[in-house]
């Protein structure tokens, strides 16, 4: 695909060069220069351009979740939907994931079998809440996060040790219940 401005400019030069009269050349230049300058699209008002939401260049909802869990615990451990797991590792190394530090596509396969199953359940629209939340509780996770636009829960996480804490955008955060030890 040719860039339109250089093509128009080349055409303008050819038209002016072919013209014999000085006044005709001046008129062509006066008409074609504004056409060249007004050609194209201003890129910063284009619908494809979006200013960054934050310095991390990550979705703002996930950044808010990171801030919330770090406010709640010094080094929180989370069970999250797999598609957003990378955000937490990019935001802070203090945030621990049940899947481990290498939670990225393909690497989860080398984790413990129950972690792989939990990952598969969290990827499902109808996760086995009893399995994933009980595993998170047994593995000392501080938060379990579900996407309420995607997940259809068959039971309340509060039945297995996690109470509803807050909703950020379309994510529901469930916090580990405090125990009196």
Concise structural overview:
The protein is 40% helix and 13% strand.
Structural overview:
The protein is 40% helix and 13% strand. With 181 residues, it is of the alpha/beta class. Strands 2-1-3-5-4 form a 5-stranded mixed β-sheet, with helices on both faces. Helix 4 (85-91) links the parallel strand 1 and strand 2. Helix 1 (4-18) packs antiparallel against helix 2 (22-38) and helix 5 (113-123) crosses helix 6 (129-138). The longest helix has 17 residues, at 22-38. The chain is rod-shaped and about 95 Å long.
Biggest β-sheet, characterized? 5 strands, mixed
Strand-pairing-aware structural class: alpha/beta
Mean pLDDT: 84
Which oligomeric state applies? single chain
Radius of gyration: 28 Å
Helix content: 40-55%
> What's the total count of β strands?
5
Compute the number of helices. 6
The SSE order reads HHHEHEHHEEE
């Amino acid at each position: 695909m040719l860039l339109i401005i250089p093509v128009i400019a080349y055409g303008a030069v050819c038209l002016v060069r072919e013209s014999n009269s000085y006044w005709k050349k001046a008129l062509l230049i006066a008409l074609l220069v504004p056409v060249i300058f007004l050609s194209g699209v201003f890129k910063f008002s284009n619908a494809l351009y979006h200013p960054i939401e934050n310095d991390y260049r990550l979705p703002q909802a996930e950044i808010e979740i990171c801030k919330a869990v770090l406010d709640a615990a010094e080094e929180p451990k989370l069970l999250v939907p797999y598609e957003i797991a990378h955000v937490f590792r990019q935001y802070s190394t203090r945030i621990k994931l049940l899947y481990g530090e290498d939670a990225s596509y393909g690497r989860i396969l080398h984790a413990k079998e129950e972690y792989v199953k939990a990952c598969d359940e969290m990827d499902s629209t109808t996760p086995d809440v009893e399995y994933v939340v009980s595993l998170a509780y047994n593995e000392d996770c501080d938060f379990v996060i579900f996407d309420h636009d995607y997940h259809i829960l068959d039971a309340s996480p509060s039945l297995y040790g996690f109470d509803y804490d807050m909703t950020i955008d379309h994510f529901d955060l469930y916090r580990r219940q405090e125990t009196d030890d």
